[in-house]
Amino acid sequence: MKKNVKLKIACISVYLLFLTVSFIFGYNPGKEIAFNLISFLLYMLKILPCAFILIGLFEVWVKKEVIEKNLGEESGIKGYVWVILLAGTIAGGLLVAFPVAYSLYNKGAKLSIVFTYIGAAAICRIPMTLYEASFVGIKFTAIRLLVSLPLVIITSILLGEYLTKRNYKMAEGK
Amino acid sequence: MYYTYAIAGLILLISYIINKQKTLKAVKIAVVKFKKIFPTFVTMLIFVSIILFLFPDEVISNYLGNSSKFISVLLASFIGSITLMPGFVAFPLSGILLTKGVPYMVLSAFTTTLMMVGIITFPLEKEFFGVKVTIIRNIISFFIALIVAVVTGILFGEIL
Fold first, then answer.
1. For chain A, which terminus, N or C, has the lower number of CB atoms within 10 Å?
2. Which of residues 147-166 of A touch B (CB under 8 A)?
């Protein structure tokens, strides 16, 4: 076993031990942390299995040529439109966006499109945007989207170009 | 939340009817990928549970409501960057903050960093994109959030 794997297991054991002891002795901060853990775990378990099933189906059904053609090096403006629409309809925020972005990249999407996807998945998911507008007002939401989305696209293009020049490759086999 | 399950289930079913082998392969890929990334998720969850304990709602509204606008914007983007909460928690909280008189630009900094900058999701993000790219992306996102906050402030007449 690698050293940092051992360290990680040790940390997790200490953490769990702390939570258990907190419950036995009624130590409130420990209990609160445990409740946070459980509520977040439930939240993730609601979303993640679906997300990974969809990623699996995507990997099997969508041909590499299709992604290369529409989201690859030759895709142009349309590619950004597609990827923002895709991001807008997928639930789960960044947690889900990372593995999806990774699959897109491996199917031949170019880097600037991949980063645009991540940014768009963070800021403009459609169900979330409607929810947001109902709490803080449509003007607020509109400003947020109209300012951040172009910035996301521009910075993604710059970052993509910078990394392509440096021959950046993402980790394999995740 | 249940509509995601409905949609995923439906697509899976259609896929199964069209091609059984391919669908089984897809499920296998899903399981393998999930297994690989699961330990990182656990690490992240532990961080989340501690950070949310350190920054409960009351603390956040205390910090964001009581100082000057610009300090509040910086604090808001700082808190937004290190915490992680789902939209269904964050936006009602924003609504409450708004009624407490927190300026729009502060809310904007808070929600945008919350959504785009993920110090807690760092271990997960770096698994896919590497440390350097993860840091660059988060720094860029942080500045985008500040720009959005300033524009929000101008358009709501909170600065100038």
1. N
2. 147-148, 151-152, 155, 159, 163
CB B64 within 8 A of CB B76: yes
What is the rounded average pLDDT for all residues in chain A?
89
- Cα dihedral B107/B113/B118/B119 (nearest 10): -80
The Cα A124–Cα A131 span in angstroms is 11
**Mind listing the pLDDT tens digit for each residue in A32-76?**
899 988 988 888 888 888 889 989 999 999 999 999 898 988 888
Q: Is the Cβ–Cβ distance between A121 and A94 less than 8 Å?
A: yes
B111: pLDDT strictly greater than 90: yes
Q: What is the ipTM of this complex?
A: 0.86
Largest CA distance in chain A: 63
Q: Which residue has the tokens 């699959």?
A: A103
Side-chain half-sphere CA neighbours of A4 within 13 A: 3
- Select from A98, A100, A107 the residue whose CB has the most chain B CBs within 10 Å, as the one to mutate to test that interface: A98
- Confidence band for A3, pLDDT divided at 50, 70 and 90: confident
Which residues, 6+ apart, have CB-to-CB distance to A109 below 8 Å? Answer: A67, A68, A71, A72, A79, A83, A117
Structure tokens, A89: 């309809």
pLDDT at B160: 67
Which DSSP string do the residues of B79-98 spell out, in sequence order?
A: HHHH----HHHHHHHHHHHH
Structure tokens at A87: 């991001």
A56 touches chain B (CB under 8 A): yes
Inter-residue contact B30 to A58 (CB < 8 Å): no
